[in-house]
Amino acid sequence: MRVLGVDPGLTRCGVGVVEGVAGRPLTMIGVGVVRTPADADLGHRLVAVEQGIEQWLDEHRPEYVAVERVFSQHNVRTVMGTAQASAVAILCASRRGIPVALHTPSEVKAAVTGSGRADKAQVGAMVTRLLRLAAPPRPADAADALALAICHIWRAPAQNRLQQAVALHTRSVPKGRPA
What we know:
The protein is an alpha/beta fold and about 180 residues long. Helix content is about 50%, strand content about 20%.
């Protein structure tokens, strides 16, 4: 399974591609950051994020895209920029028919470090270890993108089985009767 992880942001949008399957060693295919100037017009920044993500999709041909689910922060302006960059990533993948999964920050941290409250340094250290890298990817947005991809590879099989079970159960319940 090849997954493009996207840590959305308007100034720095982390991107990372990981390949592998749950239970086996994973391989980093690529990692980077799509950057936009903070003083540029919002429309131009969103186009730059789109072009950067499209480039990563063209180059790495992922089977899935994992995007960090936007959560409420105290700074509404930061949340808006993150949500806008997230929407661009979802749009780019969906336009190509690539399935998109959203993972919360605590879900990603728990998957990669074992603790949903891990800090950025712990996430970077575990990504480095799991992917057998010489050093943590910089900036932290790049490491977070790889962590998203790892999280998806490890959690997707269980999520798929759960969705299949729900679909099977829903089909087996006659219409009009409670599930």
